[in-house]
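Hey,
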Amino acid sequence: MTLKPDEKFVTECIVQFLSGSDNVSWREGEDPPDVYLDIGSQTVALEITQLSPVSFDEDGVIKNRTTEDLFALRLCDELDRKLGDKVAAKCTILLTLYVPVSDARRYRKELFNTVRDIVQSCTQKCKEKCLEVAGEKVRVAVVDERPYSEKKIVGCVFNKDSKADILLNAEVLLFERIAAKQKKCEVLLFDGTKWLALLNEYWLASFETYTKAMERCSVEHDFEKIFVVSGNRQVKEIYTGRSSFATRDTGMKQR
C-alpha cells in the first residue's frame, strides 16, 4: 500500500517521538496495519486514523461533520470567485451559513441569487440581517474590507447538528475510531504489539481533553498504546496497556 500524506505525517511524528532511546525505523504495512515500526529488535504494528469533528442525526448517531461544513465553506469560495469582483470598494460581504441543509441543489442556486442581488444593490456597509434561503436561515452583513485578505465574500459556518460539549464529542470520537480500528485489525495476521495513532482534526479538543475522554471510554480493544498527534507535530500517549516500550510526551518544531 501507499501511505496517504496524513498517515505519513503521523508516522514521522511517532518515529520522532520514539527516537532517542532506541533505533527506530518504519515500513509500510498491508493495511492493516498501516505501518510497521521497528524499535530496536522488536516490531510494532501501527494503525493510523483521524479524529475529525462530528455531528449527530436525530437518533444520536454520529455523522461526518467535516463533509457538511465543507459544503458551506466551498459555497463561500465559489461565491467569491464568481461575484467577489463586483462587491463595492472597501466592503466585504460576510455570510453566516447553517448546515446541514435539506436541499443542497436548491440551496446553492438560491444562495447565489440572493448574494448576487445583495452585491448589485449594496454600495456601503450595512448591519447584519437574517434571510431565508431555500428554507434555511442565512445571516448576511456588509462590513469593512479586510486588508489582510483578498476575498470579498467570506463566510462562517454553524453546524446545527453539532454539540457544544467538547469532552462528550472527544469521547464519542475516541469510542467510534477505536472500535472501527479494532474491527479492521481482526484480520491482521500479526501476533505482536499493536498501537493506534490518532491525528487530531478536532482542534477544540486538547490532549488533556482526550486523556479525560479515554478514561471514560469503555470500548474493548487490544491496542497496547494509543497516541494523539497534533498538526504541530506534538504527540501525547493517552493510553498505555501492557506494552513494555518506554514513551514520553514531547513538543516538536512546527511544520
